[in-house]
Amino acid sequence: MDIIMHIPSMIELETIFMLRNKIKSKH
Q1: Measured distance CA(10)–CA(2) in Å, rounded
Q2: How far is the C-alpha of 19 from the C-alpha of 6, rounded, in Å?
Protein backbone atom coordinates (compact mmCIF):
# COMPACT_ATOMS: atom_id res chain seq x y z
CA MET A 1 0.00 0.00 0.00
CA ASP A 2 1.80 3.12 -1.26
CA ILE A 3 -1.00 5.54 -0.55
CA ILE A 4 1.22 7.74 1.60
CA MET A 5 3.83 7.86 -1.16
CA HIS A 6 1.36 9.53 -3.50
CA ILE A 7 0.74 13.15 -2.57
CA PRO A 8 -1.75 14.88 -4.90
CA SER A 9 -0.33 18.06 -6.34
CA MET A 10 -2.20 21.35 -6.51
CA ILE A 11 -2.95 20.73 -10.19
CA GLU A 12 -4.56 17.39 -9.38
CA LEU A 13 -6.62 18.92 -6.59
CA GLU A 14 -7.80 21.73 -8.85
CA THR A 15 -8.71 19.28 -11.59
CA ILE A 16 -10.74 17.13 -9.22
CA PHE A 17 -12.42 20.20 -7.76
CA MET A 18 -13.37 21.49 -11.21
CA LEU A 19 -14.70 18.09 -12.26
CA ARG A 20 -16.83 17.84 -9.13
CA ASN A 21 -18.16 21.36 -9.70
CA LYS A 22 -19.14 20.47 -13.28
CA ILE A 23 -21.01 17.39 -12.07
CA LYS A 24 -22.84 19.41 -9.43
CA SER A 25 -23.74 22.10 -11.97
CA LYS A 26 -25.45 19.55 -14.21
CA HIS A 27 -27.72 18.50 -11.35
Answers
A1: 19
A2: 20
The span from the CA of 17 to the CA of 27, in Å, is 16
**pLDDT band of 18, cuts 50, 70, 90:** very high
Quote the pLDDT of residue 20: 94
**Is the dihedral angle over the CA atoms 15, 6, 4, 7 positive or is it negative?**
negative
User: What is the DSSP code (8-state) at residue 2?
Assistant: -
Instruction: Identify the DSSP state of 9.
Output: -
User: 7 to each of 11, 25, 27, how far by Cα in Å?
Assistant: 11, 28, 30
